[in-house]
Amino acid sequence: MTDPRIRAAAPDDLDAVLAFWKVAAEGTSISDDRSGVERLVARDPGALLLAERDGELVGTVIAGFDGWRASLYRLAVHPDARRAGIGSALLRAAEERFVALGGRRADAMVLNRNELAHHAWHAAGYAPQPQWSRWVKPLAE
């Protein structure tokens, strides 16, 4: 098996990414639409990282950095390609991006109910911080 090719998403990739998340991502987000992902890529062209193997999309991660926080979202690997190092390769690329931009710590958004993901995040060196909670207020319907 070949190592995945990691690259930043381009505007032409966005429909494929949205379709991929329906198959590979756990849960949905208010921003899981074309305009939401277009805004992400326009504002920070290097934030949405894709993993491809043999020309097929097999993984994604959003590695957003705002100058203060390095945040990880939408780490997703196709169910048929899991446990092959794709998630690890995406996280390495995201962490390298953060370091190059001056990031000091990466925060990951991980669903509490996604037990499979908890194992992957722990294996990558991440741990939950029980003293913090996520507080959310939707700004749009």
What does this structure look like?
This protein is of the alpha+beta class. The radius of gyration is 15 Å and the shape is globular. The model has no long low-confidence stretch (mean pLDDT 92). Helices cover 33% and strands 22% of the residues. The protein contains four helices and five strands.
Question: What attributes characterize this protein structure?
Answer:
single chain; 141 residues; alpha+beta; five-stranded mixed beta sheet; 5 strands
**How many H/I helices?**
4
Shape: globular
Q: Summarize the amount of helix as a percent range.
A: 25-40%
Class by SSE composition: alpha+beta
User: On the 0-100 scale, what is the average pLDDT?
Assistant: 92
Largest sheet: 5 strands, mixed
Cα Rg: 15 Å
N- to C-terminal distance? 44 Å
- Binned strand content: 15-25%
The number of strands is: 5
Low-confidence stretches: none
Order of helices and strands: EHHEEEHEH
